[in-house]
């Protein structure tokens, strides 16, 4: 598959309990795991949907204050240039450009409100399927208290085009790249104490059946099933480590 830039191509789950997180996601979505040795960096737990790797898991130690969250990698042409551009646009460098042996090069940058993402380039990164199937990630949202200035930041940083329209009484920006809508930008509700964060959605066959299963596995429902016209049926839950994740099914 030809490489496409400016799109999410990988995800890492930061968690404090590897076994609990692996059990939850493999049971809920039918994912598999594979241990990938990374030399001095130790072993890396990789998530696969069928035979296709799409993400992994990083265990946070007791001294790490970062919350459990999904972390998004965006394919770019030049990691160093993108990292420098993030600073010019008001962001910060969390991790400078770094090589991952046999994999690629990446950095971690934070936008002006503190949400991090990873500019990434490599020869073998997993390009997402043209049409996401069951168990595939299908959408990302940036959820923040105040969206002011972020449309300009992400538009310039990743060459995304953004279009804003009302959704549920609030402005919602849809970012597009390579001719496809890929990321949403939305303001958090007042009661959402987790913001800011990335929220990822996974394709399921039935939202209701998936929520029943998720609750049995220790998750909490934070947004009950709802239909979004011309989009699909969604719900949002917190996994056992209080990480937000959305599920989506066709209407």
Number of strands: 16
Q: Label the CATH architecture of the largest domain.
A: Roll
The major beta sheet can be summarized as:
8 strands, mixed
The helix-and-strand class reads: alpha+beta
Can you give the helix content as a percent range? 10-25%
- What would CATH call the homologous superfamily of the largest domain? 2,3-Dihydroxybiphenyl 1,2-Dioxygenase, domain 1
Oligomer: single chain
With strands numbered from the N-terminus, the spatial order across the biggest sheet is 2-3-4-1-5-8-7-6
Order of SSEs:
EHEEEEHEEEEHEEEEHEEE
Average pLDDT number: 90
Rg over alpha carbons: 17 Å
CATH topology of the largest domain: 2,3-Dihydroxybiphenyl 1,2-Dioxygenase, domain 1
The first-level CATH class name of the largest domain: Alpha Beta
Q: Extract low-pLDDT stretches.
A: none
Number of domains: 2
How would you describe the shape?
A: globular
- Beta-strand portion reads over 45%
The CA-CA distance between the termini, in Å, is: 29 Å
Q: Helix count? A: 4
